[in-house]
Design a protein that fits this description.
The protein has 412 residues and is an alpha+beta fold. The protein contains 13 helices and 23 strands. It folds into two domains: 306 residues, BirA Bifunctional Protein, domain 2 (2-Layer Sandwich); 91 residues, Anticodon-binding domain (Rossmann fold), CATH 3.40.50.800. A five-stranded mixed β-barrel has the order 9-10-13-11-12. The protein has a five-stranded mixed beta sheet with strand order 20-19-21-22-23, sandwiched between helices. A three-stranded antiparallel beta sheet has the order 4-6-5. Bound molecules: adenosine-5'-triphosphate (ATP) and magnesium ion.
Length: 412
């Protein structure tokens, strides 16, 4: 992508109405635009990062047997009265049309997917079944001050699993933990994202949250440093020691809940009468699990974790572009050629070809945007027959040959 063609511009100052680091930096860098509190547009660079996250998640969900669907946001009230959540869910957006008919804007999709599954599940042969979507949710969040971390409209991956018995559900639940670990690892927050025991209400002893440790987090967790698991604040009242090793010496940390997995047992199957015939022809309720990840929240969490005073520092697998090529030489021939060559071997390059910007402005923008690898072409590098390369996360600048440069990117 030629930066001269990018319709967004960077801004020197953060918007006055944003207080969180992720919202400030994403706005300054032109990744997102705020429409109102908790509602954002993804601009080209932000959209690319979001798509990277989406693809990482999709790959893991498909590996876990998930079949992707897309369910509607606009939902009939009737489905929500069946479970009682029309009355009890206080962050539900309700819409009324001219005729007085009422609808919900979906904050989650159990009320839609269970009646859907009921149309296709009748026998043990139809189980297990794993359905997921990546879709916008609506929730009436009153304190939407944390940028992408807490949206009123936000993208979520939600997977729902359907099982014949508890053993099958438990096995899949464990598998999903592994898939989540892979996702957060690839997204660059693996080392600081902890599986967190949350009290599971009346259905199961525990549900699990995936909590990314950062001072910007809205949540508090209590971490067992040796087991690398945590308990959340609500649970700490019931569980004041590590659920794995019993250690009572837990460390308090601020964190962001990037994902959540839940054993629903038969809560929703009972409500909608979702059952199957077992091998002996006996009717049994279907057991369910649900598994969520907020994509925007994860993107925001990555920014909260990976930034410095100058801007964002994108991990390679979620960066909008792998390389930021910057031309500060008098002529653009060498840079144009390298841009074409890198593009031809499939390297995603943002190319700062702007003629009206000083080197200082280009470097400052590059640090703010935060692509993982910066390649600079100047009159000096051209004279030396080399290319200047620097990682966004490091200080060291290297001069390397064309072959070294191409090989380095080919490997990625
Ligand atoms: P929280 O306690 O932070 O409100 P939640 O328990 O309501 O989260 P879930 O209903 O489990 O969240 O939703 C699944 C995932 O969706 C969460 O783990 C989080 O990543 C994401 N998520 C939830 N609410 C929001 C929101 N308002 N904005 C962005 N992402 C969200
Ligand atoms: Mg919530």
């Amino acid at each position: 992508m030629r930066q001269s063609k990018l319709f967004t511009k960077t801004q020197k100052d953060a918007p006055k109405d944003e207080i969180s680091v992720n919202a400030q930096m994403l706005a300054r860098a032109g990744f997102t635009d705020k429409l109102m509190a908790g509602v954002y547009t993804y601009l080209p660079l932000g959209f690319r990062a979001l798509k990277k996250i989406e693809n990482i998640i999709r790959e893991e969900m498909e590996n876990a047997g998930g079949q992707e669907i897309l369910m509607p946001s606009l939902q009939p009230k009737e489905n929500w009265t069946v479970t009682g959540r029309w009355e009890t869910m206080d962050d539900l957006y309700k819409v009324t049309d001219k005729s007085g008919k009422e609808f919900a804007l979906g904050p989650t999709h159990e009320e839609i997917i269970v009646p859907l599954a009921k149309k296709f599940i009748s026998s043990y042969k139809d189980l297990p079944l794993y359905l997921f979507q990546i879709q916008n949710k609506f929730r009436m969040e009153l304190r939407a001050k944390s940028g992408l971390l807490r949206g009123r409209e936000f993208l979520m991956k939600d997977l729902y699993s359907f099982h014949k018995d508890e053993a099958d559900l438990n096995e899949y639940y464990e598998k999903m933990k592994g898939a989540y670990r892979n996702i957060f690892e690839k997204a660059g927050v693996g080392g600081i994202t902890y599986i967190t025991f949350a009290s599971g209400g009346s259905f199961s002893k525990y549900s699990h949250e995936f909590q990314t440790v950062t001072s910007a987090g809205e949540d508090t967790i209590y971490l067992c440093e040796s087991c690398r698991v945590a308990v959340n604040k609500e649970m700490r009242d019931e569980q004041d020691s590590c659920p794995v090793c019993g250690n009572k010496n837990l460390t308090e940390k601020r964190s962001i809940e990037v994902g959540n997995i839940f054993n629903l047992k038969t809560k929703f199957s009972d409500a909608f009468g979702l059952s199957y015939k077992d091998e002996n022809g006996k009717e049994r309720p279907v057991l369910m699990g649900c598994y969520g990840i907020g994509l925007g929240r994860l993107l925001g969490a990555i920014v909260e974790v990976h930034h410095d005073a100058k801007g964002m520092v994108w991990p390679e697998k979620v960066a909008p572009y792998l390389a930021h090529l910057i031309n500060i030489a008098d002529s653009s021939n060498v840079a144009d050629n390298l841009y074409d060559e890198l593009s031809a071997i499939g390297v995603e390059v943002l190319y700062d070809d702007r003629g009206n910007k000083s080197p200082g402005e280009k470097f400052a923008d590059s640090d703010l945007l935060g692509m993982p690898n910066r390649v600079v072409i100047s009159d000096k590098t051209i004279e030396a027959g080399k290319y200047e390369i620097k990682k966004r996360s490091e200080k060291e600048v290297k001069l390397i040959s064309r072959d070294e440069l191409l090989n380095m990117f080919k490997k990625k």
